[in-house]
């Protein structure tokens, strides 16, 4: 599989860019421990240079995130520059600052869609976000955007606290006109490492995966799209992924393959979610755009080795010896590292649990 991907070419077709670490919330699941802006965040001109490099590399879609991206004043300019260069721009926000005026700015700049984080029904969401009325604010932000005809995606981290609310949340998002709902497992990194009781245990996928498939088979919007740390290879796999995919099953972690992550200080990773300096880890930082061009960082033959130079003998724990190991490469790298400390040892695999082959992470 890796040889095939290499033959197709490593191109950062999509990515997530933390344009600022500043945030107006202190969420319980925040992997990057967002709050204060980094002291060395890229200037507007430096960010424009990154966008030009993304276009050169063939990037098709870039999500501007944070922190809270709307706290960076030039975010509409970055949206506009992305669109000008042929890259579809989206924004991922917590909704607290969102107004009709900001929505119009985003629309005028050429936003492709807007994503809002929703972490449960009212009591649960406000608890996770550590802010009263944040639930009401995000629903208001969704309604503003839908009314302005800006497509809305909702994003939810699934934990012990909200897994029982999936059905009700789907109905809620349907009523508010959301067209896609991305769900992902809450991961014990950053703030969530201090709240391990909230982390869904590995066997929790036996409840979550069939529920997602069941809802999607009804054909009622929003379609639930399982993020890359949910799956893989069970009987429900084709109902977890985005509708219309030519290959409707998991093809392995795409960090450094066709996905890129950029931090607000210019550090480059294969996926923004991977741990870095704020989690006392530098293993996944491939370079910085102030010292090298993004093109040079991406095209470095030694970069992103955990994926580009993978071999099946690197699989550990319950992933070792799996029939799908060559394709899967050990699941979502971010989730594997956060849970087991190893990039190719993924304890939440649905296939593994349904086949009764799950072994302790230390195996």
Q: How are the strands ordered across the major sheet? A: 7-6-5-4-3-2-1-8-9-10
What's the gyration radius in Å? 19 Å
The helix content is: 25-40%
Principal-axes shape call: globular
Helix-strand sequence: HEHEHEHEHHEHEHEEEEHHHHH
Plain-language structure description:
- This protein is an alpha/beta fold and 363 residues long.
- Helices cover 31% and strands 13% of the residues.
- It has 13 helices and 10 strands.
- The two termini are 26 Å apart.
For the structure shown, list the relevant keywords.
13 helices; 363 residues; 10 strands; ten-stranded mixed β-sheet; alpha/beta
Strand-helix topology:
Layout (H helix, E strand, L loop, with lengths): L1 H7 L5 E5 L25 H14 L3 E5 L9 H10 L3 E6 L6 H10 L3 E5 L4 H8 L4 H14 L4 E7 L7 H10 L4 E6 L19 H13 L5 E4 L32 E4 L4 E3 L17 E2 L5 H6 L5 H4 L16 H4 L4 H8 L9 H5 L9
Parallel strand pairs: 1-2, 1-8, 2-3, 3-4, 4-5, 5-6, 6-7
Antiparallel strand pairs: 8-9, 9-10
């Amino acid at each position: 599989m890796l040889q095939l991907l290499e033959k197709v070419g490593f191109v950062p077709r999509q990515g997530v860019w933390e344009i600022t670490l500043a945030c107006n919330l202190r969420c319980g699941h925040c992997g990057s421990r967002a709050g204060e802006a980094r002291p060395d965040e890229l200037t507007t001109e430096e960010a424009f240079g990154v966008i030009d490099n993304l276009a050169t590399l063939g990037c098709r879609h870039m999500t501007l995130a944070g922190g809270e991206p709307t706290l960076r004043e030039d975010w509409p300019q970055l949206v506009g520059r992305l669109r000008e260069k042929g890259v579809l721009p989206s924004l991922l926000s917590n909704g607290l600052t969102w107004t009709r005026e900001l929505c119009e700015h985003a629309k005028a700049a050429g936003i492709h869609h807007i994503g809002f984080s929703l972490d449960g029904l009212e009591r649960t969401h406000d608890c996770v976000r550590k802010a009263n009325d944040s639930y009401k604010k995000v629903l208001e932000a969704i309604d503003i955007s839908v009314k302005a005809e800006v497509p809305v995606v909702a994003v939810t981290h699934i934990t012990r606290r909200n897994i029982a609310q999936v059905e009700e949340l789907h109905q809620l998002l349907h009523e508010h006109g959301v067209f896609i709902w991305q769900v992902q497992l809450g991961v014990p990194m950053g703030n969530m490492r201090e709240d391990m009781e909230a982390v869904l245990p590995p066997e929790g996928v036996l409840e979550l995966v069939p529920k997602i498939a069941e809802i999607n088979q009804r054909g009622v919007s929003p379609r639930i799209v399982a993020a890359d740390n949910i799956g893989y290879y069970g009987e429900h796999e084709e109902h977890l992924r985005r509708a219309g995919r030519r290959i409707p099953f998991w093809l392995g972690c795409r960090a450094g393959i066709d996905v890129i992550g950029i931090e607000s200080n210019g550090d480059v990773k294969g996926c923004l979610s991977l741990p870095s300096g704020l989690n006392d880890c530098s293993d996944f930082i491939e370079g910085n755009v102030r010292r090298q061009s993004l093109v040079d960082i991406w095209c470095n033959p030694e970069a992103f080795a955990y994926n580009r130079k993978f071999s099946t003998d690197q699989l550990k724990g319950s992933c070792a010896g799996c029939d799908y190991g060559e394709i899967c490469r050990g699941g979502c790298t971010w989730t594997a590292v956060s849970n087991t400390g190893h990039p190719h040892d993924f304890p939440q695999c649905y296939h593994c649990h349904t086949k009764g082959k799950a072994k302790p992470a230390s195996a």
